[in-house]
Amino acid sequence: LSICSRTVEPLEYYRRFLKENCRPDGRELGEFRTTTVNIGKCLCSITTADGSALVKLGNTTVICGVKAELAAPAADSANKGYIVPNVELPSLCAERFRSGPPGEEAQAASQFIADVIENSQMIVKEDLCIANGKLAWVLYCDIICLDYDGNLLDASVFALLAALKNVQLPLVTINEETGLSEVNLKQKNPLLIRKHPVATSFAVFDDTLLIVDPTAEEEDLATGTVTIVTDEEGRLCSVHKPGGSPLTGAKLQDCITRAITRHKEVKKLIDKVIKSITPK
Q: Domains in the chain, ordered, with CATH?
C-alpha cells in the first residue's frame, strides 16, 4: 500500500485496511489509542487553576483548568451555583483552525460539554450554593486543545472530569454581623462529584462500519460520527449525533455496550492516577 494511494485516494486506501478489520495505524476497528492522564500538580503549567488535568488520546492532547470564583446566585436560581464550560481550538493545535473568535466546531464542543454536565448531573448546581440568594461558587472550566488528531469530545470530557476531581474549594462562610463572606484557605474540601460521565466516540464508514476513537483523518473520511456518554451505573447520559449516516437500533445498542466497557477502563485509569497523587 503506497503513500501515493493514501494521498490520491484516501478513502479507497482506508477501505483496503477496513476489509482486513484493521486500520492504517495498526489498530483493530474497536481499539482505542493509548490514553494517558496527568492530574493537578503534575501540571506546573496551570498553577493558577483550582484543578487541572492533561489528557492524551493518541496524539490528541487536551488540557483542562478549573477556576472557582464567588458570585451572587441568579434571582431565579437562588440556591444554585454556576458551571461555565468553554472549549478552545487554537490555531496551534491544527492547521484547520484559525485564530480569532471561537469557530463552529469549538462552539459545538462547548455546548456538548455543557449538555453532558447537565444531563449526567456530575455536579449538582445546588451543591455549589454557599448561602441561599447571597453567595455561590462559579466554576469556569476552560478546555484547550493543544494537539488535534480527532476525537476531541472523548478527550475533553475525560480532561474535564479529571480536573474537577482535582478541585479543592476553601471553606466559605458569611459573617452574620457584617454580611461579608469569609474565606478559610486552610480548610479545603474536594468538589462533590455525583456522577462520572465518560464519552466514547465512533466514526461510521460507508454507512455501516463502526470504528472507535477516530483520528482526524478518519473523521474526515467517515460518513458520520456518534458520541455516547455513560456514567458508572451504565446509564445513558447523552447521544450526540451531528447528522451523517443514520444508525440502526442494533448498531446504536452496540455503541452503547462498547461505551459501558470503555467507561470502566477510563474510570480505572482516573482512580489509579488520583490514588498516586493523594498524600498517604
A: 28-277 (3.30.230.70)
